[in-house]
Amino acid sequence: MSAITARKSVAHQTDDMTSTSSSTSNSISASPEDTPRQSPSTTSLSSLDSNSELELKAGSGKLLDTYGNEFHLPDFTIKQIRDAIPAHCFERSGAKGLGYVARDLASLALTFYLFHNYVTLENISSTPARAALWTVYTFVQGLFGTGLWVLAHECGHQSFSPSKTLNDTVGWFCHSALLVPYFSWKISHGKHHKATGHLERDMVFVPKTRDEYASKMGYYVHELSELMEETPIATAGNMIGQQLVGWLLYLTANVTGHNHHERQSEGRGKGKTNGFGGGVNHFDPSSPLFEKKDGKLILLSDLGLIIMGTVLFLIGKNFGWANLAVWYFVPYLWVNHWLVAITFLQHTDPTLPHYEAQTWSFARGAAATIDREFGFIGRQLLHGIIETHVLHHFVSTIPFYNADEATEAIKPIMGQHYRSNVEGGSIGFLKSMWNSARMCQWIEACEGAEGENKGVLFFRNHNGLGVPPQKMSPLTEPQAAKNEE
Question: Which pTM value belongs to this model?
């Protein structure tokens, strides 16, 4: 996957940053099919089209991403994207999908067999050597487990096979084995795909606005541009916390998801907010993440967790809790780590815009993602989920083994709006985590933006990196009181 680096050097840039690549051809003129109509089912993950035109005020003012690159709103349509993809890329094979599941399960089983039978006191007398080898075991099993997670993700998008029954059966078994509530995740994840980049509706890694970030940090909005740099150790601490418990916090408290639940169409979100005890989670059928009709599916997801929890309890009781921790729970934490890292970097980058409601469209939101490169691990063990994510947000029913070809097909249509950061391969992927954590602290509108451009927000930070945040005047007391209300 080749791309041309599009980053420009800007003032106040004091840290090393990984470059972000994009193709450079111009985007195609717009047609009426730009915004999707809502699918009859909130769980449908198929790509969406519409014949209605965007009705937005013309924007003015220069839009600059965090690196200082000028940004123009995408003007291609979903129909143009779909028409560019060869028809055979949409073909799904249940046999091929099951073959990959069998491969990943066999890899997990064989790895356990080899370590359980050969990395023993009888064969390796050195305790440090055994400990080192079992540490390798947890890492390798974490990769194989993440691969299985990705295949269940394919099932949730109905890209695993043409059979919905087969997809949901395989997805439920695989995700339950990884302590993931399959249908609950599938429903909320489907809503993420329908509202990617929408600040009031997106379901995952919704960035904080300037107001929200200032409130969290205990400052006034105008003071952010004057703050000193966040210490690297603070950044590292935040990253470690995110990678250790981010996925669990998302499931139990909807952390990083939107917090506008009062708008839920059935009134289920009244008085409910993100956070522990706020009534927003992936286990309760009454959660505003779901509709009433989803209740049985949420309970079926919970049943899968109960069954797997029982199996794990019996293993721990009969074979020892320390063994269970090494055999299952440390690899489980590795799976969670990779899942959070992948999702974070798919939707958090100094080049990516986010949109307020009046400026958002499905095509614009789908383009607000980025492909990266993770070498053999990403392409073989993790089934390309890192390398072909942009295509996945436009047409989520294309199976992963056809996604590379489909990605190449849509690049000419997307033009400068196709984003990839492939420099450095696997090492570059890991460096991007630090770069995004340092540069992407909150989002705000660009200085001088008006009309629909005012609804396009980019990341800014107080670390002296990239385009500096806007300087604002202190609020008067009446204004401050009004904002607090």
Answer: 0.86
